[in-house]
Every structure is written in C-alpha cells, then in structure tokens.
Design brief:
This is GIY-YIG domain-containing protein. Belongs to the UPF0213 family. Pfam families: GIY-YIG. It is built from four helices and three strands; from the N terminus they run ββααβαα. By secondary structure, the chain is of the alpha+beta class. The chain has one domain: GIY-YIG endonuclease, CATH 3.40.1440.
C-alpha cells in the first residue's frame, strides 16, 4: 500500500507557510531544501522546514485534504502545526 502526504513547510516560526502534497515526503522535502526548482515559491522564500504532515490513504484523499488545509485561515493552519509541533521544529531532521 502506498502512502500519500499533505504537508506544511515554513521558513521560520510564524513565517511564510506553504501547503503541499507528495507521494514521497522525504524526496519532496529534499527538493525544497535543495531548491531543485529555483523559480518556485518555496525556493524564492526559503520555505524548507517541514513543520506538519499527515498521511492519507489514497491520492484523492490527499488532494482533497490539501485543498481543505489551503482554504483554512492562517490561524487554523497554525493550530494544526502547534497541536503536535508547538516549537515549530523541522520534522525532517528526524530522518538524518
């Protein structure tokens, strides 16, 4: 069974928030950190710290959940992050 992910990255605590989706979260975060796509939003604003993610069971659920999160007001996105990550730690550092 394949996992799908919805995630939020930032450049610093209370900074710019970016919501995205991926079927390989480690690879996608690596792409953000290494600015593989230098002209995209995350590269321009240095948004490469993974502060939130959730696993979805299929691609349709992933896309729907990403849309839900993107439509949240900023305060609600911050609540999502701080529920499990109050210090806004870069969760990808656990992979090293």
């Amino acid at each position: 069974m394949k996992d799908y992910f919805v995630y939020i990255t930032t450049n610093k605590k209370d900074g710019v928030l970016y919501t995205g989706h991926a079927n390989n979260l480690q690879r996608r975060v690596w792409e953000h950190k290494n600015k593989v796509y230098p002209n995209n939003f995350t590269a321009r604003y240095n948004v490469d710290k993974l502060v939130y993610y959730e696993v979805c069971g299929d691609a349709i659920s992933m896309i729907n959940r990403e849309k839900q999160i993107k439509n949240l007001v900023r305060r609600k996105k911050i609540e999502l992050i701080e529920k499990d990550n109050p210090g806004w730690q870069d969760l990808s550092l656990e992979w090293e």
